[in-house]
Design brief:
The protein has helices at residues 3-13, 35-45, 63-66, 72-81, 98-101, 115-124, 144-151, 190-197, 230-242, 271-286, 305-318; strands at residues 18-20, 27-31, 54-56, 67-68, 86-92, 106-110, 128-129, 157-158, 171-174, 181-184, 202-203, 225-228, 247-251, 262-266, 292-296. The chain is an alpha/beta fold and 320 residues long.
Protein backbone atom coordinates (compact mmCIF):
# COMPACT_ATOMS: atom_id res chain seq x y z
CA UNK A 1 0.00 0.00 0.00
CA UNK A 2 1.38 3.41 -0.95
CA UNK A 3 1.84 6.03 1.79
CA UNK A 4 -0.87 8.27 0.29
CA UNK A 5 -3.41 5.44 0.19
CA UNK A 6 -2.51 4.45 3.74
CA UNK A 7 -3.07 8.03 4.91
CA UNK A 8 -6.35 8.28 2.98
CA UNK A 9 -7.63 5.08 4.59
CA UNK A 10 -6.66 6.34 8.04
CA UNK A 11 -8.54 9.59 7.42
CA UNK A 12 -11.66 7.77 6.20
CA UNK A 13 -11.61 5.52 9.25
CA UNK A 14 -11.25 8.62 11.44
CA UNK A 15 -14.43 10.08 9.94
CA UNK A 16 -12.75 12.62 7.67
CA UNK A 17 -13.46 13.50 4.04
CA UNK A 18 -11.16 12.31 1.25
CA UNK A 19 -11.63 13.43 -2.35
CA UNK A 20 -10.57 10.86 -4.92
CA UNK A 21 -10.67 10.36 -8.69
CA UNK A 22 -13.03 8.06 -10.53
CA UNK A 23 -13.36 7.54 -14.27
CA UNK A 24 -16.42 9.84 -14.24
CA UNK A 25 -15.72 12.79 -11.90
CA UNK A 26 -13.88 13.35 -8.61
CA UNK A 27 -15.82 12.12 -5.59
CA UNK A 28 -16.05 13.57 -2.08
CA UNK A 29 -15.62 10.42 -0.02
CA UNK A 30 -16.66 9.47 3.51
CA UNK A 31 -17.08 6.18 5.34
CA UNK A 32 -20.57 5.16 4.27
CA UNK A 33 -21.23 3.44 7.61
CA UNK A 34 -20.28 6.48 9.72
CA UNK A 35 -23.22 8.83 10.35
CA UNK A 36 -21.11 11.82 11.41
CA UNK A 37 -18.70 11.38 8.50
CA UNK A 38 -21.54 11.26 5.97
CA UNK A 39 -23.03 14.37 7.60
CA UNK A 40 -19.81 16.22 6.70
CA UNK A 41 -20.48 15.56 3.01
CA UNK A 42 -23.84 17.30 3.21
CA UNK A 43 -22.38 20.20 5.20
CA UNK A 44 -19.40 20.79 2.89
CA UNK A 45 -21.44 20.50 -0.31
CA UNK A 46 -24.53 22.33 0.96
CA UNK A 47 -26.45 19.28 -0.24
CA UNK A 48 -30.15 18.75 0.62
CA UNK A 49 -30.58 16.06 3.27
CA UNK A 50 -33.05 14.05 1.17
CA UNK A 51 -30.68 13.81 -1.82
CA UNK A 52 -29.22 10.25 -1.80
CA UNK A 53 -25.55 9.36 -2.08
CA UNK A 54 -23.90 6.60 -4.10
CA UNK A 55 -21.85 4.01 -2.22
CA UNK A 56 -18.59 3.12 -3.96
CA UNK A 57 -17.26 -0.38 -3.30
CA UNK A 58 -14.14 -2.26 -4.45
CA UNK A 59 -15.90 -5.14 -6.18
CA UNK A 60 -19.10 -7.04 -6.89
CA UNK A 61 -18.48 -9.21 -3.82
CA UNK A 62 -19.45 -6.19 -1.69
CA UNK A 63 -22.88 -5.89 -3.31
CA UNK A 64 -24.68 -7.96 -0.69
CA UNK A 65 -23.19 -5.93 2.15
CA UNK A 66 -25.34 -2.98 1.11
CA UNK A 67 -28.26 -4.42 -0.84
CA UNK A 68 -30.80 -7.17 -0.29
CA UNK A 69 -33.15 -8.86 -2.76
CA UNK A 70 -30.48 -8.55 -5.45
CA UNK A 71 -32.02 -9.82 -8.72
CA UNK A 72 -30.00 -11.83 -11.22
CA UNK A 73 -30.25 -8.99 -13.74
CA UNK A 74 -28.36 -6.77 -11.28
CA UNK A 75 -25.56 -9.30 -11.01
CA UNK A 76 -25.49 -9.61 -14.79
CA UNK A 77 -25.11 -5.84 -15.20
CA UNK A 78 -22.44 -5.74 -12.50
CA UNK A 79 -20.51 -8.50 -14.27
CA UNK A 80 -20.79 -6.70 -17.60
CA UNK A 81 -20.02 -3.12 -16.55
CA UNK A 82 -18.10 -3.13 -13.25
CA UNK A 83 -15.68 -1.59 -12.72
CA UNK A 84 -17.29 1.16 -14.73
CA UNK A 85 -19.68 4.12 -14.92
CA UNK A 86 -22.85 2.30 -13.92
CA UNK A 87 -24.75 2.73 -10.63
CA UNK A 88 -27.29 0.11 -9.56
CA UNK A 89 -30.31 1.10 -7.45
CA UNK A 90 -31.34 -1.81 -5.23
CA UNK A 91 -33.29 -2.48 -2.06
CA UNK A 92 -31.12 -1.47 0.88
CA UNK A 93 -30.13 -3.65 3.77
CA UNK A 94 -31.71 -2.51 7.07
CA UNK A 95 -28.37 -1.40 8.54
CA UNK A 96 -27.63 1.10 5.74
CA UNK A 97 -27.92 4.55 7.30
CA UNK A 98 -30.77 6.85 6.23
CA UNK A 99 -28.42 9.68 5.25
CA UNK A 100 -27.04 7.51 2.43
CA UNK A 101 -30.46 6.70 1.01
CA UNK A 102 -32.26 9.98 1.57
CA UNK A 103 -34.62 8.06 3.87
CA UNK A 104 -35.70 5.72 1.06
CA UNK A 105 -35.68 1.93 1.04
CA UNK A 106 -33.18 1.86 -1.84
CA UNK A 107 -29.43 2.34 -2.13
CA UNK A 108 -27.16 3.21 -5.06
CA UNK A 109 -23.96 1.20 -5.49
CA UNK A 110 -21.12 1.17 -7.99
CA UNK A 111 -17.52 0.04 -8.56
CA UNK A 112 -15.51 2.88 -10.14
CA UNK A 113 -13.05 2.15 -12.93
CA UNK A 114 -10.01 4.11 -11.79
CA UNK A 115 -6.84 2.48 -10.44
CA UNK A 116 -6.41 4.96 -7.58
CA UNK A 117 -10.07 4.69 -6.54
CA UNK A 118 -9.93 0.89 -6.61
CA UNK A 119 -6.69 0.86 -4.61
CA UNK A 120 -8.30 3.10 -2.00
CA UNK A 121 -11.51 1.08 -1.81
CA UNK A 122 -9.71 -2.25 -1.57
CA UNK A 123 -7.46 -0.95 1.19
CA UNK A 124 -10.42 0.55 3.05
CA UNK A 125 -12.40 -2.68 2.53
CA UNK A 126 -15.75 -0.97 2.90
CA UNK A 127 -18.21 1.35 1.27
CA UNK A 128 -17.31 4.96 0.57
CA UNK A 129 -20.16 7.40 0.00
CA UNK A 130 -19.00 9.83 -2.65
CA UNK A 131 -21.02 12.43 -4.52
CA UNK A 132 -19.12 14.80 -6.80
CA UNK A 133 -16.51 16.85 -4.93
CA UNK A 134 -18.01 20.30 -5.47
CA UNK A 135 -20.68 22.60 -4.06
CA UNK A 136 -24.15 21.24 -4.63
CA UNK A 137 -25.57 22.07 -8.06
CA UNK A 138 -22.30 23.37 -9.50
CA UNK A 139 -20.20 21.96 -12.34
CA UNK A 140 -18.66 18.64 -11.33
CA UNK A 141 -14.85 18.46 -10.93
CA UNK A 142 -12.75 16.38 -13.32
CA UNK A 143 -9.30 17.24 -11.92
CA UNK A 144 -7.82 17.43 -8.42
CA UNK A 145 -7.24 21.15 -8.97
CA UNK A 146 -10.98 21.67 -9.53
CA UNK A 147 -11.63 20.10 -6.11
CA UNK A 148 -8.98 22.21 -4.43
CA UNK A 149 -10.26 25.41 -6.05
CA UNK A 150 -13.83 24.82 -4.92
CA UNK A 151 -13.55 23.03 -1.57
CA UNK A 152 -10.03 23.83 -0.38
CA UNK A 153 -9.35 23.03 3.27
CA UNK A 154 -12.85 21.61 3.80
CA UNK A 155 -11.42 18.30 2.54
CA UNK A 156 -8.83 16.49 4.67
CA UNK A 157 -7.07 15.02 1.62
CA UNK A 158 -7.32 15.11 -2.16
CA UNK A 159 -5.94 12.13 -4.07
CA UNK A 160 -4.69 13.30 -7.47
CA UNK A 161 -5.31 10.74 -10.20
CA UNK A 162 -5.13 13.12 -13.14
CA UNK A 163 -8.06 14.15 -15.36
CA UNK A 164 -11.09 11.87 -15.30
CA UNK A 165 -11.34 9.65 -18.36
CA UNK A 166 -15.12 9.69 -18.91
CA UNK A 167 -15.88 13.18 -17.61
CA UNK A 168 -19.59 12.98 -16.75
CA UNK A 169 -21.41 11.06 -14.04
CA UNK A 170 -22.43 7.40 -14.14
CA UNK A 171 -25.57 5.94 -15.64
CA UNK A 172 -28.03 5.16 -12.83
CA UNK A 173 -30.44 2.25 -13.28
CA UNK A 174 -33.28 1.22 -10.97
CA UNK A 175 -33.54 -2.55 -10.54
CA UNK A 176 -36.18 -2.59 -7.80
CA UNK A 177 -39.15 -3.03 -10.14
CA UNK A 178 -40.11 -5.53 -12.78
CA UNK A 179 -38.72 -3.30 -15.55
CA UNK A 180 -35.17 -1.97 -15.36
CA UNK A 181 -35.32 1.82 -15.59
CA UNK A 182 -32.68 4.44 -16.37
CA UNK A 183 -32.98 7.23 -13.81
CA UNK A 184 -29.94 9.19 -14.97
CA UNK A 185 -28.34 8.65 -18.38
CA UNK A 186 -24.59 8.23 -18.61
CA UNK A 187 -22.01 6.89 -21.02
CA UNK A 188 -23.27 3.34 -20.51
CA UNK A 189 -26.15 3.61 -22.97
CA UNK A 190 -29.61 2.10 -23.05
CA UNK A 191 -28.49 -0.01 -26.03
CA UNK A 192 -25.55 -1.46 -24.09
CA UNK A 193 -27.77 -2.22 -21.10
CA UNK A 194 -30.33 -3.80 -23.39
CA UNK A 195 -27.78 -6.25 -24.79
CA UNK A 196 -27.24 -7.63 -21.28
CA UNK A 197 -30.87 -7.45 -20.13
CA UNK A 198 -32.42 -8.86 -23.28
CA UNK A 199 -34.69 -5.82 -23.64
CA UNK A 200 -34.21 -2.07 -23.61
CA UNK A 201 -34.63 -0.43 -20.21
CA UNK A 202 -37.37 2.10 -19.57
CA UNK A 203 -36.53 5.78 -19.15
CA UNK A 204 -37.47 7.73 -16.01
CA UNK A 205 -40.66 7.23 -14.06
CA UNK A 206 -42.69 9.44 -11.72
CA UNK A 207 -42.62 6.85 -8.93
CA UNK A 208 -38.90 6.09 -9.26
CA UNK A 209 -36.51 6.52 -6.31
CA UNK A 210 -34.76 9.86 -5.88
CA UNK A 211 -31.18 9.62 -7.12
CA UNK A 212 -28.07 11.80 -7.40
CA UNK A 213 -27.99 14.47 -10.07
CA UNK A 214 -31.64 14.17 -11.07
CA UNK A 215 -32.86 17.66 -10.16
CA UNK A 216 -33.98 19.90 -13.02
CA UNK A 217 -31.22 22.42 -12.23
CA UNK A 218 -27.76 20.93 -11.71
CA UNK A 219 -24.16 20.83 -13.04
CA UNK A 220 -24.34 24.60 -13.52
CA UNK A 221 -21.74 27.35 -13.93
CA UNK A 222 -22.29 30.71 -12.23
CA UNK A 223 -22.24 32.42 -15.63
CA UNK A 224 -25.51 32.37 -17.63
CA UNK A 225 -25.39 29.45 -20.05
CA UNK A 226 -27.21 28.88 -23.34
CA UNK A 227 -27.43 26.00 -25.82
CA UNK A 228 -27.67 27.23 -29.40
CA UNK A 229 -27.80 25.76 -32.88
CA UNK A 230 -24.61 26.26 -34.95
CA UNK A 231 -25.98 29.13 -37.06
CA UNK A 232 -27.25 30.92 -33.97
CA UNK A 233 -23.86 30.64 -32.22
CA UNK A 234 -22.31 33.12 -34.65
CA UNK A 235 -25.28 35.46 -34.24
CA UNK A 236 -24.77 35.36 -30.44
CA UNK A 237 -21.09 36.20 -30.92
CA UNK A 238 -21.85 39.21 -33.12
CA UNK A 239 -24.54 40.35 -30.69
CA UNK A 240 -22.06 40.22 -27.79
CA UNK A 241 -19.44 42.11 -29.79
CA UNK A 242 -21.97 44.82 -30.69
CA UNK A 243 -22.75 45.21 -26.99
CA UNK A 244 -19.01 45.16 -26.16
CA UNK A 245 -19.44 42.12 -23.91
CA UNK A 246 -17.16 39.15 -23.42
CA UNK A 247 -18.65 35.83 -24.49
CA UNK A 248 -17.46 32.27 -23.98
CA UNK A 249 -18.10 29.73 -26.73
CA UNK A 250 -17.77 25.94 -26.68
CA UNK A 251 -18.22 24.42 -30.13
CA UNK A 252 -16.74 21.68 -32.36
CA UNK A 253 -15.97 24.17 -35.14
CA UNK A 254 -12.96 26.46 -35.09
CA UNK A 255 -13.46 30.12 -34.20
CA UNK A 256 -14.35 32.03 -37.40
CA UNK A 257 -13.63 35.46 -35.87
CA UNK A 258 -10.66 37.01 -34.09
CA UNK A 259 -11.57 39.35 -31.27
CA UNK A 260 -10.37 39.59 -27.67
CA UNK A 261 -14.00 39.66 -26.49
CA UNK A 262 -14.50 36.12 -27.84
CA UNK A 263 -13.20 33.31 -25.61
CA UNK A 264 -13.61 30.36 -27.95
CA UNK A 265 -12.90 26.79 -26.89
CA UNK A 266 -13.06 24.11 -29.58
CA UNK A 267 -14.39 20.75 -28.37
CA UNK A 268 -14.61 17.30 -29.93
CA UNK A 269 -17.51 16.52 -32.22
CA UNK A 270 -17.52 12.95 -30.89
CA UNK A 271 -19.59 12.15 -27.79
CA UNK A 272 -16.76 10.57 -25.77
CA UNK A 273 -14.37 13.46 -26.38
CA UNK A 274 -17.09 16.03 -25.70
CA UNK A 275 -18.01 14.36 -22.39
CA UNK A 276 -14.34 14.21 -21.37
CA UNK A 277 -13.83 17.97 -21.80
CA UNK A 278 -17.15 19.73 -21.21
CA UNK A 279 -17.01 20.21 -17.42
CA UNK A 280 -13.41 21.42 -17.49
CA UNK A 281 -14.24 23.93 -20.23
CA UNK A 282 -17.35 25.18 -18.42
CA UNK A 283 -15.24 25.71 -15.30
CA UNK A 284 -12.54 27.52 -17.27
CA UNK A 285 -14.96 29.91 -18.95
CA UNK A 286 -16.80 30.44 -15.67
CA UNK A 287 -13.63 31.99 -14.26
CA UNK A 288 -12.97 34.31 -17.19
CA UNK A 289 -15.54 37.04 -16.58
CA UNK A 290 -17.77 36.25 -19.54
CA UNK A 291 -21.21 37.82 -19.66
CA UNK A 292 -22.51 34.59 -21.15
CA UNK A 293 -21.37 31.09 -22.07
CA UNK A 294 -22.75 29.49 -25.21
CA UNK A 295 -22.47 25.79 -26.01
CA UNK A 296 -23.29 24.58 -29.50
CA UNK A 297 -26.18 22.12 -29.24
CA UNK A 298 -25.03 18.51 -29.58
CA UNK A 299 -26.90 16.01 -31.76
CA UNK A 300 -30.15 14.59 -30.38
CA UNK A 301 -29.48 10.86 -30.47
CA UNK A 302 -28.81 8.05 -28.02
CA UNK A 303 -25.02 8.52 -28.07
CA UNK A 304 -25.50 12.09 -26.83
CA UNK A 305 -28.39 11.49 -24.41
CA UNK A 306 -26.29 11.84 -21.24
CA UNK A 307 -24.47 14.93 -22.50
CA UNK A 308 -27.72 16.64 -23.47
CA UNK A 309 -29.15 15.72 -20.06
CA UNK A 310 -26.27 17.43 -18.23
CA UNK A 311 -26.30 20.51 -20.46
CA UNK A 312 -30.04 21.04 -20.13
CA UNK A 313 -29.79 20.84 -16.33
CA UNK A 314 -26.78 23.17 -16.40
CA UNK A 315 -28.75 25.75 -18.39
CA UNK A 316 -31.63 25.53 -15.90
CA UNK A 317 -29.25 25.98 -12.98
CA UNK A 318 -27.21 28.82 -14.44
CA UNK A 319 -30.05 31.34 -14.25
CA UNK A 320 -29.87 32.11 -17.97
Amino acid sequence: MSPEIERAVQLLRAGELVAFPTETVYGLGADASNVSAVAKIFAVKGRPQDHPLIVHVPGVEHLDRWACEVPEKARALAKAFWPGPLTLILKRRPEVIDAITGGQDTVGIRVPNHPLALELLKAFDGGVAAPSANRFGHVSPTTAQHVHDELGDAVAMILDGGPCQVGIESTIVDLTGERTTILRPGMVSAFELGKVLGRLPAIGGADAPRVSGSLAAHYAPRTPLALLQPDVVIFAVREAMAANKRIGIIAPMACPLSDERIVWRQISGEAAGFAHDIYALLRELDEMGCARIVVQKPPLNENWRAINDRLQRAVAGSGS
